[in-house]
Each structure stands twice: as C-alpha cells, then as structure tokens.
Amino acid sequence: MDSSDPIRRPGGGLPRLLEIMRRLRDPETGCPWDIAQDFASIAPYTIEEAYEVADAIEREAWDELRGELGDLLFQSVLHAQMAEERGLFDFHDVAEGMAEKMVARHPHVFGSESRDKSAEQQTKDWEALKAAERAAKRQQRTLDGVAMGLPALMRAVKLQKRAARVGFDWPETSQVLDKLVEEAGELVEARDRLGPDEIEDEMGDMLFVIANLARHLGLDPEAALRRTNAKFTRRFNAVEDALAAEGRTPADSTLGEMDALWDAAKRREKSD
Question: Which part of the chain is the NTP pyrophosphohydrolase MazG-like domain (predicted)?
C-alpha cells in the first residue's frame, strides 16, 4: 500500500473521503459512472439512502447503521463535489453553513437565552427562527419553502402544519373524521360515475384528510404506514411459510385458503 497516497492511508477520515470523491469525478481518470451523474440523477439515491438509515434505526440494526450513515454522508460529499465543479459551493461551505444555522437556532445553548424553558416553548422558538429565515429568503407565503421532493404524506402534514399556524385548521378531531366520511363518499361517486383523473383527484383528497387525521391524533402517517407495511409483510410471509410446509405456493391456493392462514397468523401475533 502506498502510504504517500492520501486515499490509501487508513485513518484519513473526512479529508480522505473528499479526495476519493474528487478522484472519482476527475474527467480524465475518474469513474465513468460517477462522472456522468448530476444533481437530478443522484437525488433519488440520496432519498433512498436516507430511508435505509431510518430502516436500520427502526430495526435497531446498529451494526448496519454505521454503514448506512456512511452511504448517506457519501451522498452529501457527492452533491458538494458537483457543486464545487460548477463554482457554486464546496463541502466546507456546507458544513460551515450548517454550523452557523445551528448556533443561530440554539441561542439557549450558544447564546445568552435561558435554557430553563419547556420543550414546547423551544419548539415555538425554533419555528419563529425558521420563519425569520424564510422571510430573509423572501419566502413570504405561508406554504413557501415546503420541499416539493418530500414523500407525499410527509409533505401533506408539513403543509397542514404551516396552514394551522395561521389558523386554517379544524379545531376538533371529530370534524376531520366527518370530512373523511365525506371524502370517502365522493371517492365512491367518482368511481361509479367519473373518469380516471377524477378518481385520482378524489383519492388524493382522501389521503390528504387521512394525513390530517393522523396529525390531529399526534401520529406520523409515514411511521404508521411503515408499521402496517411491516405487519403485512410478516403476516404474508407466514401465509407463504404455511403453504410451503404443504408443498404449495400462493399461486396454487385459493383466496379463501390464504385468508384462513392470514387469520391464523393474526391470531398468533395477538396471542404472543
């Protein structure tokens, strides 16, 4: 191993990683795939890596978490390298900008404000600081700055929270439930009488109200759906395992047979 080459020197940390990225993107000697990428082509991978971090945390797979965090860091390094090549900013600017933001948003830690306040008050102060930052960026509309690239349910909740800050919100959860019933009726009507675009529109309205209901109940709809996805996966795997024990597959079975096995898996879960 050539110890004079910084990319082959263990313990090089972040400077080593930055140099690796610079070489991967070198137009003369770099990796053709890395060279061909741009912000738009890499963005989906960035989102995917963030979800893989969340997945490792949810599964408490701590050995995997280190690697997943590294993959996510690599995405930041890649975006910063592409920005540096365009003369926009570099990784140092990214890190410095985040440091300045955190200091500004925590005057009770890094400034003269008292730390003796509730978590609720700290949240209000945080939102006030973010509102001031948006104003400085000339984001004057209530919904300005809610990222378009967020998962749809997550973005729905953020939009609703912003609107709620200026009083545009149902005061009671029961009103949200009433709206959900209304939207379900409109979806049925669209299914029976209208076309695909109208059905999709009504389906979107219903999902938006479901996200609002989750918010009113103090729940994260993304987390709730992930939990149900995991439950569905467990139970369907149990159905497949039971069929496999009989030398069969779902394709060889009837819906009634699979439903019975599903119910059995459900009962086992509830009795554990």
Answer: 37-110, 175-237
**Residue 91 CB neighbour total at 10 angstroms:** 19
Can you tell me the distance from the alpha carbon of 6 to that of 16, in angstroms, rounded to the nearest whole number? 6
pTM: 0.64
Q: Would you state the structure tokens that stand for residue 207, as one six-digit string?
A: 């999902």
Choosing from 75, 105, 135, the residue where a domain stops is: 105
Q: Are 154 and 222 in contact (CB under 8 A)?
A: yes
Q: How many Cβ atoms from other residues are within 10 Å of residue 51's Cβ? A: 13
Query: Which residues contact residue 12 at a Cβ distance below 8 angstroms, ignoring those fewer than 6 apart?
Result: 6, 19
Question: Does an H or E element contain 200, and which?
Answer: helix 196-216
Distance CA 215, CA 209 (A): 10
Q: How far apart are CA 258 and CA 147, in angstroms?
A: 42
- Identity at 21, one-letter amino acid code: M
Round to whole Å and give the CA distance between 221 and 47.
18
Instruction: Give yes or no for a contact between 221 and 157, defined as CB atoms under 8 angstroms apart.
Output: yes
For residue 2, pLDDT over 70 is answered with no
Q: Is the residue at 205 inside a domain?
A: no
Q: How many structural domains comprise the chain? A: 2
Whether residue 187 is predicted with pLDDT greater than 60 in this model: the reply is yes
User: CA separation (Å) from 97 to 72, 78, 90, 94?
Assistant: 18, 17, 11, 5
Domain limits for position 22: 6-105
114 by DSSP, 3-state: which?
coil
